[in-house]
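User: Fold this; tokens only.

Assistant: Input:
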Amino acid sequence: MLGQLCLAIHDLRALLDAADAAAAMSIEALLGTDRVFAADLQALRPHPGQARSATLIRTLLAGSPIVASHAGPDDPRVQDAYSLRCAPQVHGAARDTVDHAERVASIELGSAIDNPVVTLDGRLESNGNFHGAPIGYVLDFLAIAAADVASMSERRVDRMLDPARSGGLPPFLADDPGVDSGLMIAQYTAASLVSDLKRLAVPASVDSIPTSAMQEDHVSMGWSAARKLRRAVDGLRQVIAIELLTAARALDLRAPLTSSAGIARLRELLRAAVPGPGPDRFLAPEIAAVVELVGSEALAPVLMPLAASTPVPTDQEDA
């Protein structure tokens, strides 16, 4: 259980950076505003994870000609949809959940959970330190966070494919709308994955079946929580990959408008793995290529310098 938790924490940290990057690309592609990510607005609710995600998104969008193209009094929209505007709040809550899980893992890594245990003064004592509740709870908690981040990501994908909400993009980002399907099936895939992730978010740690003639009458079910969290992490990676694939295609279709420097670098990485817009083609290999890109942490050279420079407030005064 502890090994799986440590692996999940490592993977989720990288995936949440990728989720922030995908959100920034989608915000640019959907002609969203970056004003809501201002540091003073985020400091009004000083959760550390929220501040980190907002700063990463804001930094990626800095200097974007696309954002500048629709800024000002001529923009008729009052505010962006939740899936754009509230990305730091959701991604940040997931970051704080990972931080909490890491604190639990750190305590466990320095703990003695043997039963019986030999004490420092030489006693041989039976005890209950082996019980997996502390780990099981955070394994379940992380699965909830993964499902919610993926759910928000899929909503941004859907928005980019809908001409009524995409701000002028072709239906389904198709090369020949009405004939081609574009990325319609990619959104189907994301929706199916999110549906699975919601089921995986049902906690295992609330379940317990007695064994050993009622001696072991309450168990943590932590291993079940660990196994489903691994599936949830893998599903989240695929959903984020689909958003990155979709946002990159949407931004290509915004030409001659150009992206910010940070987002342009991300698109270059994606274009090295998959081709740009064109007639319908088999999408599975392209999705798999971006999943591999995200899983290999190849985005880290772009994102890590930004994430490393992001301040993490320790209390309200610092925020």
